[in-house]
Automatic annotation (TrEMBL), chains A, B:
TM stretches of this protein: none
Entry cofactors: Mn(2+); Fe(2+)
Gene source species: Azospirillum doebereinerae
Protein name stated in the entry: Ferric uptake regulation protein
UniProt-listed CDD domains: Fur_like
Subcellular locations according to the entry: Cytoplasm
Keywords: Cytoplasm, DNA-binding, Iron, Metal-binding, Repressor, Transcription, Transcription regulation, Zinc
Family, as annotated: Belongs to the Fur family.
Basic and acidic residues composition-biased segments: 162-171
Amino acid sequence: MTSLERLCQERGLSMSRQRRLIIRVLSEARTHLSAADLHQRVTELDPDISLATIYRTLTIFEEEGVLKRLDFGDRKMRYEQADKEPHDHLLDTTDGSVVEFQAPEVAALLATIAARLGYRLDGYRLDVFASPDDSRAESARACVTAVQPPAKRPRSRHHHHDGREHSAPGR
Amino acid sequence: MTSLERLCQERGLSMSRQRRLIIRVLSEARTHLSAADLHQRVTELDPDISLATIYRTLTIFEEEGVLKRLDFGDRKMRYEQADKEPHDHLLDTTDGSVVEFQAPEVAALLATIAARLGYRLDGYRLDVFASPDDSRAESARACVTAVQPPAKRPRSRHHHHDGREHSAPGR
DNA sequence: GTAGGTGCAAATCATTTGCCGGCGG
DNA sequence: CCGCCGGCAAATGATTTGCACCTAC
């Protein structure tokens, strides 16, 4: 039995044929899936599953703490198992792959900053955009979640200025 | 002349009646406005401006580096003047207000982390969720951008588990 | 047997676009 | 004058929901 199934049981969630399939696909996926991704894969195993069911199930699983919802900013939510070690995501801007990393310093720093402003840290949302440092081979390219790189829309017209992108990479 | 107008001129953007109004409203706003917010306010000054124009203008202004697009995760984009000092946003989870803050340590830390993973930092997207630390009065409540706090949808049912929320506030 | 789960289609919501007449430089 | 600009309405795309039927426990 997969850990996801176990999680569902612990939450007392009833298991239908479609939920079992959804869990199976999620368990086998090595990337963060969106509702559409999931629907496509589940449909291959059983063509009679509605997208609405996928959405309803994902929503319930998230509310029950079985899944965690991810928002990489490309307007489609992704999901990952909720009981993993807390981590953040680095998005490779060259191919949309996602690397998970643990860095407790981040939360620590943000807590400090929040305190400095008179607040108590409740949580945060962070996406790190980065490109491979060609000065050496990548250690372990993992989670290839096809996140469309934060590219500018093709819309062009004139063009008088230089191109400063993204949010403050800071000096 | 406002700095936004100046920015537009520098970019060689043509100024129509509607663009002038949009710039005026943006300049007067002390919060981060969404297209709908902007449209509502502009409409009060001139009822004949289409939402499509608002969107097209915001898009162009962003492409031209006049405005910066913000995504607070509530599926509506907000905008702020692009020539401000680089900063991040702290979202007050109790009332949706937004506090801007500068913290070069963040970019520095993320650059270090990226390097550790074999990447070069291109940029990042960060939202800090926090609640007022009641142990003292807030210094200066500023930008009250009504961002709907990352609250769980009302959808309730059973409830067997404890409630761990948000992304890793870290241990 | 009954509350909860599911399929289907229609509805939302933010945002985009085609078309076409009108204005700015 | 001419190409960019703006209005309107229809189109998108992700996600949600109303309704009636079906099934897990």
